[in-house]
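Our collaborator T.R. sent over the components below with a one-line note: 'Predict the complex.' Nothing else. No constraints on interfaces, no templates requested, no preferences about which chain binds where. So this is a plain run: every listed entity goes in together, and whatever single assembly comes back becomes the starting point for the next discussion.
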Amino acid sequence: MTGAADTLAIRDLTKVFRIKTGGFRHADLKAVDDVTLSIPPGRTLAVVGESGSGKTTLARLILRLLEPTRGTVLLEDTDITAMEGAELEDVRGRMQIVFQDPYDSLSPWQTVGRTVAEPLLLHDGLTMKQASGRVADMLERVGLSPEHARRYPHELSGGQAQRVGIARAMITRPALVVLDEPTSSLDMSVQSQILLLLQSLQEEMDISYLFISHDLSVVRYIAHDLAVMYLGKVVESGPAAEIFASPRHPYTEALLRAAPRPDPAHKTDHVYLVGEQPSALDRAPGCPLYGRCPISEDVCADTPQELVDIGAQHRVACWKRI
Amino acid sequence: MNARKYDARLIIGLTMFGFMVAVAVFAPLIARNDPLAIDLTNQFVPPSADHWFGTASLGFDVFARVVYAARHDLLIAVSAVALSIAIGHPIGLLVGYVGGWGDSVTMRCLDVVQAFPALVLAIGVLSALGQGVRNLILVIGIVGVPTFVRLVRAEVRSLREHAYVEAGRAVGNSRSKILVRYIAPGTVGTVVTQAAVSCGWAVLLAAALGFIGLGVPLPEPEWGAMIAEGIPEMRRGGSWWIPVFPGIAIAITAFSLILIGESVADLVEPTRRKSR
Amino acid sequence: MTRRLAALIPILLGVTLLAFVVSHALPGDPARQYAGINASEAQVEAIRERLGLNESLPVQYCVYMIGQTCLGEPGGGGLIRGDLGESIRTGFSVAQDVGARLPATIEMVAAGMLFALVVALPLGVWAAVRKGKLLDKFCRFISTLGVAVPDFWLAMILLLIFFIVLEWLPGPVGRLPIGATTPDGPTGLYVIDSLVSGDWETFRTAVKHLLLPMVAIGFPAVAPILRLTRNATLSVLNSDYIAFGRAAGLRGAPLYLKYVLRNALPGAVTMAGLIAGYMIGGAVLVERVFSWPGVGLYGYNSLINTDYPAIQAYVLLSAVTYTVVFLAVDLVQSLIDPRVRLK
Amino acid sequence: MSALLEVRGLEVSIAGLPILRGVDMEVKPGEILGVVGETGAGKSMTARSVLDLLPAKATASFATCTFAGQDFIPPKARQEARGHRIGFVPQRPRGSLNPVFRVGNQLSATLRRLRDMGRREARGEALDLLRSVRITDPERVYRSFPHELSGGMCQRVCIAIALAGEPELIIADEPTTGLDVTIQAEILRLLGEVISERNAAGMLITHDLGVVADVCDRVAVMYAGRVVNVGATAEIYRGALHPYANRLVSIATSLDSGGTPREVPGRVPNPGDHLAACAFAPRCFRAGPGCFDREPPLVNQSGQVAFCHHPVTAGVVPR
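Returned assembly:
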């Protein structure tokens, strides 16, 4: 992958949280640990992991909603890691986010029209009146009617609210949209509507998606590339089809085996990993999966595992599976 | 489905409060007698056609004094709460949103102020500042500030966690715009609710201060001070009308305000929850 | 535990500072108030000198806190040695005055608290169980009304009814009839002391005198306790764990009572602390009505006699007492709530 | 084979709004029935009706309700069955355990109540139960407060409590929502195992068709307060008769294979919305005019039952 053409390129991105552990003591929690990823234009990279894997923190770091401890974020070849104030507010027109909870992501005090128009007011310097035409177009594009612009969020269904969130994210035609579990709080029949909408918008506007999810079936459908995270580390990355077909990291394998599939003939393999995910504070200095991994050996405990390219962009951080 | 029931409480509260406000505004029309008129021949007269609520020492007409006192007590309560909000609301917004060092210092200061029971603190400050309506408003207003700072701060801190605030930042709003457009509107409901309840407390506090002689200076009529006049009568065993009527006036005013606050809170709460 | 105690120090320091500011730094002139309206300028100046009011404010605070040591003079004194100054009115040290009056206030506040709890706890649980029914509505009405009725007025109404009209209970003459011998005892609480020494006659009289003040100071506290108990009970009744407990076959009153009590306790303890603070403040009003010889009445008498050191001591002591009560509440809290204990 | 639990014509309304509009459902001995549907379909309400655990403002009526031949219409019968004959596994395991008591106390309190055990006996049995839900260090868990345990561990404890009365039927209401994927799988397997170990039957309420495919023998698909389609799991996944069920399965399977899902237009109706005779008609790809004003008939075909005017039969390719 050549960095030059990528919509987003992040290098060694790290976030350490300082956690109070009682009294005056505290510990450092590495929520995101040396993550390097990139997304070419018009492609979707899915970041998959369980709660506590750091995928949501990663998204916040990329959008500069959180300050990274270390590392760089390049958006269309511009380093945005150190941007501040007005400069940063400007660059937000190029990168957007759609949230998991559609209601909670819309301000209850603003009409739908105002919410969707806001990026135009801030970045293109339009007035509400000037923006209204484009707002109406965008609402129709996401499957709502222009008269929805006058409504308030609590008058919408979950699916409609999520369409408003998508309209807000897409109205400035950004280069990158982070989708933070955009369908996981929606009903199944509505979920597929939103997925189809996202896909057609991507084709139309050539947007890059960073798709955060724990739901493998949704990822299988929408992602071109995949990065699997565990306790702040990317343990495997590469083309989605390739990873689904032949997962190499034991954790990826466990995820794929554990995910129930809508096929009565397929029985889920349940007991691949031992125990439950520990806190990121308690993980081994070496491989984060040490202690739960069925194929681990003593050396894994304190030998850090680097991502190694095993061909066709497929990279895995496990010395036993290279 | 419960809206009707809460509306009833709100209507009762508003009616009672409106009545007291009307009494204050139209006092000269309601009371035929002069509240300051002294009539030494008619002291401690029980309620009669001439003096509906009887007379007190110096022949003061209790009815006229109860009616005119509404002006003082309502003015003091409303101004004091307005002062509390004017100081407390912006501080609460700011320390709640910015947090950090300024927040900790502010909160420790509030801890200190609130370590004093409100009445006792007011006594201390008033005994130093001296009596007078303006000082009363000042003291009652300042005593009420911590309530609003804490309330607004807590509300801001919970509003701050909502995804729509993050969404506002993600589309490129500056921090000050976020505070004004996304967070401040969410605090209005609770502040209005608390304002009504605080007004009720302010009436009670003003009356309590009047009762121990730190209120509106005599001979101006004030409910709390009027009740205090009844104490010596207690031991003598009569003149029940002197303390009873001003007390009822206080209770009606405070009750209506608290009722308004509570029913508004119940009305605001479900809609807010729904819209989140 | 040590952290909580440590956190108390800055608050207590702040409390003394605020009490000091109120007494020394506000625009009012204590010396003039001391001297009275008719005093000459020279007299006022003399008083100012005697009180040390010509020193700079930081020095004054220092003297206030650690006494004459601050000025390099012998003599001690200062707040940290328990020196609250000398009362102008009584001529005794304020600490001594307050100490003598403390048991009366404690007796009244404790009785009031007991009264409030005994009335409010069962009613709160009952109202929650019968949510939306007549009883619940009545309780809501009472709790709103209870907050709205001034306690000092209630005190007088009680006197009107039970002393003047019905003549069942004694008038506003304090803790015992005038001239009665006070019971000896370690606590200074007449009800307990007379009980311990088996003096039934005094006990009966003391209880009779205590009844009305108890109700007057306790009644306003009924409303918040009732409301808290009701809400706590409701939140337990509507909780997932009650639903699951029922689904798992647990049934009946024991389940509810045990769960409700155990889960509502932490909230009730916090509320008790708040109410104690309220009562400490309200004591001045109720004591005034009943001529109850407690700290509040002392504060009131100091006030009308512009007895400056005594007023300041009264304000400061109220705040310190409240702070200490709150710390106690916090500690009890951490003992009874496993979720707090963890932190 | 006669049903263990049989429910016919169950109607529930909350504050006057109809939630269930005639639910028919049965659980056969030894089977696990999956109850599937979207938000507001009435899955949980059905389960709660069987245990007489509806919210305060709800009213329920049955045409028939029997459990192992016993009449279950009297509320008392349903109340007495809780824990003893029907075990319940909740949706939010941590919230379902009382935060101020140790989990061991909660488990043994249930045992003492349901099985009349003494204190010591209950403790031993509680530890055995914890072991039987594959908890490796039961002594430690017994002494823990709920907030000290992980979500998965809390759910194991809840399952142990559900098993305490040795019930014949275990109802699990979305038992794995909120748990991590790898833990979900373990909890589901555990549920399946404890049900079959005890020769009990199960009712698993979920919105996840993957979960159903994994552990259920039969599936009941609910929509807007009715069961619209019932059948053996394999049959439903091969080709559900009801267009709604059919579409749901097709969305799930096409996503799973990376294919493009077919779209179901519109949204799930809310309680109180005006419904057509067939509630799904406005969103249905096979709806004709009759669907809106005539009650859909019962169709019994290839091991499935569905209520539909235009069932998706073999040979009809869903558009």
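Summary for T.R.: Chain C touches chain B through 53 residues (CB under 8 Å).
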